[in-house]
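Hi team,

Filling in the usual template for the complex we talked about on Friday. All components are listed, including any nucleic acid strands or ligand strings, so the model treats them as one assembly.

SUBMITTER: L.P.
PURPOSE: interface mapping
COMPONENTS: two
RESIDUES: 1176
SEQUENCES:
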Amino acid sequence: MVEIVQATRRHPLQAGQLDVASVSVTLADNATRVSLRAKDNTVSALSKALGITLPMKPKTSASNGGRAALWLGPDEWLIIDDADSGVIADLAKVKVLHSAVDISHRNVGIIVAGKGAAAVVNGGCPQDLSLKAFPVGAASRTVLGKIEIVLWRTGEDAFRVECWRSFSNYAYAFLQESARDVAI
Amino acid sequence: MSTSTHSGSNRIPGAGRLTPAKTVRFTFDGQSLTGLEGDTLASALLANGIHLVGRSFKYHRPRGILSAGSEEPNALVDIERDKSRKQPNVRATVQEIYDGLKVKSQNRWPSLTFDVGAINDVFSPMLPAGFYYKTFMWPKFAWKTIYEPKIRAAAGLGVVPDEPDTDRYSNRFAHCDLLVVGAGAAGLTAALSAASTGASVIICDEQAEPGGALRYESDVIIDGLPGFEWAVAAIEKLRAMDNVTVLTRTTAFGYYAQNFVGLVERISDHLSNPVSDMPRERLWQIRATKVVLATGAIERQMVFANNDRPGVMLASAARIFLNQYGVAIGRKVGVYTSNDSAYAAAIDLKRAGIDVPVIVDTRDNPTPAVVDAARSLDIEVLTGHAVFSAGGKRRVSSISIQPTRGGSERKVAVDALIMSGGWTPSVHLFSQSRGKVAWDAANERFLPGTYAQECVSIGACNGTDGLQATLDEAFAAGGGKGKAIVATGGTNWIGGMIGSAPGAGADTTVKAFVDFQNDVTAKDVRLAVREGMHSIEHVKRFTTNGMATDQGKTSNLHGLAIAAEALNRPIPAVGLTTFRAPFTPVTFGAIVNHARHDLFDPTRRTPIHGWHQTQGAAFEDVGQWKRAWYYPQAGEDMHTAVNRECVAVRNQAGIFDASTLGKIEVVGPDSAKFLELLYTNPWEKLGVGRLRYGIMLREDGFIYDDGVVGRLAEDRFHVTTTTGGAPRVMHHMEDYLQTEFPHLDVWLTSTTEQWAVIAVQGPKAREIIAPLVEGIDMSNEAMPHMSVREGTICGVPTRLFRMSFTGETGYEINVPSDYGRAVWEAVYERGKPLGLTPYGTEAMHILRAEKGYIIVGQDTDGTVTPQDAGLTWAIGKNKTDYVGIRGLLRRDLVANGRKQLVGLKTVDPTTVLEEGAQIVANPNQPVPMTMIGHVTSSYWSENCGRSIALALVIDGSKRLGETLYVPMPNGVIEVEVTSTVFFDEKGERLNG
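RESULT (copied from the run log):
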C-alpha cells in the first residue's frame, strides 16, 4: 500500500526584498477567487447569496469584510475572498442562472502600498489613477507594461494588482523596478 | 568640487547667475578645464575661450557654437562616462557640466585643429548638392562594392557605443487637465492661471532653469520683479502646489493623437555621481485634456559667406552666455542684424565692458529708438549695410562690410560676431498635432492656423508680440479668473529677413550656410531649383536641407525663401515641410525604458518549472512559455536522451508537464449547443464524464485549432486548446458568442493557469497513479479511454482525464496550480521504481507522430481542411450548422488535387527527412521541378527502429504505396507513401 502524502501549496513567487522605504511591493496572501458571470435579472439573488451588492458600474467594486466583488464587465465580476472562505459553496447554493468558476490558483495578487503607489502602477499602466478618476474602491481590468492585470484601489495609497500566475514574475519585477524609480 | 576658483578667462565678474566659488572640473579632448556649477558645456568652453568645438559633416569645416539651446546644429560632442555609457552627438548647448565630465570632439582626425577630412572643403566644387545621385551612378556594380562601403565609413557624426548601455531608464503615464509646454513668461503665466482654478497642471521645460527668454532679457519687469527672478518665484510657487507637476530638463518631443504627448525627462545627465537606482531618463506619456504650447521662437542666422566660422553666433545666444552664465563670447564683438532684437544684445555686451565696434543693419531705416540707444553707448551703427564675409578660419577674425546697394568695402577686426536674421515661431509641436500652419505674409513667418486638437498656442510661438500681450493671452489660456499680471520690456519678435542676405551672392562660389549640420549652402538650394526641384519636399531631399538631427530649426525658413526666390514664386506656393516627432533626438533607452532584460517580454513558466530545472532539463520557447524540451542524463546528447524518453513511455511510463495547454471552462445550460456551433464534432450526446477530441474551423473551412473537451456536468465543459492557440481560441469563441450566438446562455472563463497538468502515459500509468487517487474508480471498465472523473490526488482536488497523445494508456492529472509541483513530485517518487521517466516536448512530438496525431500549426498551415488531414471522422455527419460548414462545401475544397496528409517512409530507414523538404513525383524532370507536396513532420523513431515522416501531398490518400522523391542538395531521397500511423496501427494500447 502506497502512503498518500498530502500535497502542499507552492506560491509561484518568492518574496523579494525591495530596498525602498517609501513604498512597498509585496505578495498578497493566498485567496479564493471566482470568476462570476450572470445576467442583470439574477444579480439580486447572487448579491444576497454573496452578502455583497454586486456593483453594476464600470470601474467600481463592493466589499463586505474580507469578501469583495470587482466589476469587470456588464456580466462579469471578480470575487476575491480569504483562502479558506466559503464563497464557492455559497455560490453553489444559488439556483439562478449564472457561471461561477474557481480561479483561485489562476491569479496572483501583488500589493503596492505607500507614498507614490499610484505612480508606481503608472510606471506601466496608462490609466488615470488620480483619486478623482480612480477613487478608493475603483477596479478595472487594464494593462501593466506588456501584460493584462486587474487593478483595484484599496486605499488612497494602496493598490492590489491581480494577474495570471505565469505573468506574476513579470508583474512583480516590473512593479519593483517602477517603485525604485518612484522612490528617487 | 575642485579647489581652483578660476573658471575661465572670459568670465565677467559680477555678470550672470552662477556662483563663482562652485567650480567644476571637466576635460575637452583631454584638456583639463574648469567651469562653474550650472554651466552648460557650451558656456564653460566659451568661458575658457574655446570656440572651435567640432568639424562639419560634409566639408569638415571648423565649427563653433551657434546657439545656446536645443536648436544647436554645430556644437555636437561625444560624452563618455565609462565604456558602456557613451553618447555621441550631444549638443554642447544642452549638456550641463559636472565634475569629471569627459568630452571629445567629433568628426575630426587626427585632431580638431588639424583634420585630414577638411580636404573635402578644398574639393567642395566637386561635391555639390546631389553629387551622390550622379557621381555614384556608374559603373553600376561599384555602388555595392566601392561607393557605398566608402561613403558609409566616411559618413555619420560621432561613434556608436560598442557595449550595451548600463544606464536605467523609466516610464511614467500621467493625465492632467492642462499640459503646458514651455516655462517662459507665457507658459508660467498659463500654468499659474490654470493652477489657481484647481485644475491639474503639468508644466515642462527643456532647460534646467525656468524663464525661457527671461533668462537673458535684461529689461523685463514682471509684477514688480526682474524677469528671471519672477520666473524663479513662479516656478517655486507652482512646485509647492499639490495640483501641479513641474518638470524641468524635460522636452516635449512628440504630440500624438487625442492630446497624447511624449516627454523625456533628463534626470542624471547633469550629475557627477548619480545614485544607483536613478534612471538616466524618464519617459512621460501624458494624456492632457488641453495642451498649451508656449514654445517660443528660435532666432535665425544671417546667410552670408563663411557665416559658419567659430565665433559667429546668434545674438540671443551671446545674451544668454552673458546674462545667465557671466561669459563674454569675445572681447571685440561685431553685430550683424536685420531686426531690432540684436540691438539689445549689443547693448548688454557693451554695458558689460565688451567692445562692440559696429552694428551692421541691412535695413535702411531701423527703429530710431534702438539705433539711438546703441549710439548713445558709442556703438557705431551702419544702416543699409551688410556683412559680406567673415574672415578667419578656426575663429572669426574680421568682418567685411559693404553697403547693401554696393560700394566700398570696409574690414573691421572682431573676435566674435553676433547675428540675428529674426525669429521663427516654434510651431513644431503644433504641426505634429496635425494643425495646419498659416503664412503671415506681413511678417514672413508661419503661424498656427487651423487646430486639429484641443490645444492653444501662446506667446512667441503664436506670433504674439509684446510681453504684456503675451501674458494676457497666457492668462486667458489658463482659464484663471481676474487679471493678468503687469509687465514691461521684452524682445520684439517681429522683423528680420529670410533667405540670403545681400551680398551672399547669387551663383558665386561662396559658402553661405543655410543648414550648418548638413553643410547646405545658399547656392546648393539654388542649384536644386536649377536642377528642376520645384517643391520644397524635393529641394529638401536633393540638398538634405533640414534633414539633420536638428531638423532644420534654424535653416528651414531660409532654405524655403531661397528656393522661392529662385523659383520666383510666393513662399506658401513652394510649401513648408511638415514637422515630425521627435522635436529633438530621443534615446532608444527612453523609448524602451523598463522593457529590458527580464522585463523585455514576460517569460511564462509552469508551476513545475523549478523541478525540470533541478533535473537539468533543456527548455524550448513556445510563444512566451518555457517548456521542458528533454532531460539529458550524464553523457547524453539530445538524440540519445530523446530516444531513451520515447522508449520508456512505450515500455514503462513517462511523465510530462502539459500545464501550458490552453483551458477554457464553458458553463451554462446552452454549453453543448454552443460547442456544437464552434466544433465540427457533435456534443449534445456526449455523456457527463466523457471526453471527445474536437476540431475547430475558421469560417473558410480550414482547421483553426484542436483539443480534447470533457463534459463535467450537463452545463459545464472543460475545453482544452493547443498551447499556442489558447488566447486566440478564447477570443474566437468569445467573438462568436457575443456577435453570432448572443441568444445562448453560456459563459467562457479561461482556466489555463488554474490547472497544472501532469500527463502520465504508458503501460504502467494506471499502476503508478491509482494508489495516490481517492474517490475515483480507475479500473478500465469504470474509467475507460476518453473519460474524466473528479476526485482527489495526494489529498487535493483533481480533474483526472483518461486520454492520450502518445497512443499509450494515459492520464492527464489536472490539479490547482499551486499544488502542481507537489503532486508531480509525489507521482514521480511513486513511479520512479516502476521506470517512470520524465519526457519533454521533443519526445512528445515523436510519440504523437508515431501515431499520426497532428499538431495544428505544424502539420496544418491554415489551408488544411479536416478531410485533408484525414480527420473526416471528426465531422458530425448529421450536423446542420457549425463555424466553417459552408466553407467546407466550397468547390476548391472538395475538388481533386488537394494536398492530403500521408505518412512517408524513406527507402533507407536511417535517412531522416528535413521538415519543409519538397516532394516530387519524377526526380529526373528538368528544374524547376513540379512540386507535389512537402514534409511537415520528420523524426527518428527509436520505437519503430526507423525514420518516420508526415507530409502533405497532392491527392495523397490515393497514393498509398507509391514511390515519391525528395530532391536535396546531396542527392535525391526515395520515399514510400504510407498510412500516417506508424506504431500500433490498431490502437490497442490505448485501452490497456
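MY TAKE: Chain B touches chain A through 61 residues (CB under 8 Å). The domain at 497-569 of chain B is CATH 1.10.10.1100 (Arc Repressor Mutant, subunit A).

Thanks, L.
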